[in-house]
From TrEMBL:
<keyword id="KW-0805">Transcription regulation</keyword>
<dbReference type="Pfam" id="PF00392">
    <property type="entry name" value="GntR"/>
</dbReference>
<dbReference type="Pfam" id="PF07729">
    <property type="entry name" value="FCD"/>
</dbReference>
<keyword id="KW-0238">DNA-binding</keyword>
<dbReference type="InterPro" id="IPR036390">
    <property type="entry name" value="WH_DNA-bd_sf"/>
</dbReference>
<protein>
    <submittedName>
        <fullName>FCD domain-containing protein</fullName>
    </submittedName>
</protein>
<dbReference type="InterPro" id="IPR008920">
    <property type="entry name" value="TF_FadR/GntR_C"/>
</dbReference>
<dbReference type="InterPro" id="IPR036388">
    <property type="entry name" value="WH-like_DNA-bd_sf"/>
</dbReference>
<dbReference type="InterPro" id="IPR011711">
    <property type="entry name" value="GntR_C"/>
</dbReference>
<dbReference type="InterPro" id="IPR000524">
    <property type="entry name" value="Tscrpt_reg_HTH_GntR"/>
</dbReference>
<keyword id="KW-0804">Transcription</keyword>
<feature type="domain" description="HTH gntR-type">
    <location>
        <begin position="9"/>
        <end position="77"/>
    </location>
</feature>
Length: 230
């Protein structure tokens, strides 16, 4: 099947799109070696440098892989999703399982690494959560997430902080939905306050395992607003 010449500008994007169509359409199956740059350039009606940039874009999407001295081979039939895209499609329960691993370890590290400024920030975040208990579910969830973000920050691990920030949008949506469906705050607007205060005290006291256990117990409780939904 002939590729057909592309129109001027933006040539790289058009060339990459045309090549992607051939791969996703099965014209070049996984494992196939692509034609050389000269051949592709001639069929697309562009220069070799344009083809080279287009192939680089496809490699970045996980579709092809250049092999030293051997050429460019098809690696996958569909482009790889980036992390934010995958998270947006993830089930809330899957996110909670990751949250458990991240926050339990973060609490442990926070207790070991917290500074006086971190402890002050934690008490302030706890007070913010208490104040938000008088507001609607969305505001309360935002304050709750801000509290947990403060614990993550006290761990002083930028990778944990970035990971938590990435799945926060999915987490927020799941928590709001949980509160709406269960009405957990109807009789206790500041639900799980005791556990949150216990976490601050454990971190402030440098009790790493105690902090980890507080978070583990909280997230394993399906009846807490920050627990894993059934």
């Amino acid at each position: 099947m002939p590729l057909g010449a592309v129109r001027p500008s933006p040539l790289v994007e058009q060339a990459a799109a045309r090549l992607r169509e051939q791969i996703t359409g099965g014209h070049w199956p996984v494992g196939t070696k692509l034609p050389g740059e000269t051949t592709l350039a001639r069929e697309l009606g562009v220069g070799r440098s344009t083809v080279r940039e287009a192939l680089r874009a496809l490699a970045g999407a996980g579709l092809v892989q250049p092999r030293q001295g051997a050429g460019v081979f098809v690696l996958a039939a569909e482009p790889a999703e980036d992390w934010p895209t995958r998270l947006r499609r993830a089930a809330v329960t899957d996110v909670y399982e990751v949250r458990m691993a991240v926050e339990v370890q973060a609490a442990r590290l926070a207790a070991r690494r917290r500074t006086p400024e971190d402890v002050t920030a934690l008490w302030a975040a706890l007070e913010g959560r208490r104040t938000a208990s008088a507001a609607d579910d969305a505001a309360f969830v935002d304050a709750d997430i801000a509290f947990h973000a403060a614990v993550i920050a006290a761990a002083h691990n930028p990778v944990l902080a970035d990971l938590f920030a990435e799945f926060t949008p999915v987490l927020r949506e799941g928590l709001i939905e949980l509160l709406t469906l269960t009405g957990l705050r109807t009789h206790d607007p500041n639900t799980s306050d005791d556990a949150h205060e216990a976490l601050v005290r454990a971190v402030a006291d440098g009790d790493a395992e105690g902090a980890a256990e507080v978070v583990r117990g909280e997230l394993e409780d399906p009846f807490a607003p920050t627990g894993k939904p059934e």
